[in-house]
Tetraspanin (Hucho hucho), 251 residues
Amino acid sequence: MSPPSRRLQTKPVITCLKTFLISYSLIFWFTGVILLAVGVWGKVSLEAYFQLASDKSTNAPYVLIGTGAIIVIFGLFGCFATCRGSPWMLKLYAMFLILVFLAEFVAGISGFLFRHEIKAVLGDAYKDAVTNYNTTNPKSSAVDTIQRTLYCCGVNSYKDWNTTKYFKDNGVPVSCCKENAVCSVENLKDLDRARDVVYDTGCFSLVTTLMESNLGIIAGISFGIAFFQLIGVFLSCCLSRYITNNQYEMV
């Protein structure tokens, strides 16, 4: 049993650690909200780009949403464990933070290392989607969304549609039309006329640049949050050790 004087000296230390860990847990909870927001943003804004690289809708945004939800829950658990001063709860909280750190660190490294491969795959997928465009499959819908959103047309220019089967029957897709332009069938089937009513910038460079920059943002957020977990691990372990060694119960 530690002498009373020593136990009195440890009280301010434990109180200080408790304050820091509660503050950390609240910030950690907020990072979970950020991941939820990034996941929802990815689902809404980047779904068209993900569809190009997959025949089915990707689960990547849902992974971020699920991870964010778990972090929100464990952030509240961290506050509860700190207030209770339970060593086993604090150790469980620290273990969870370590797992989150490893997962986010690996995800960030993977996104950074394979960003060029992802760019190449996306570029090839976009070219294939333009070649086999038919307005009915998900990839064709993704092409329409990209052309309307980025104000572009075709792979390198609107002339790329001239080699597709769709052009022979329908001309350049309506999604290439400029705002307030008169896009009649006759205009869209004639490349010379289409030049005045459709976007002349190709989508390939815009798509790959946009995806690469967005992957960089996501990787940066993952790295930042990952290293932030280490602070929580340190605080949780220190507080658990002080409580265990000094047999101190915090209410």
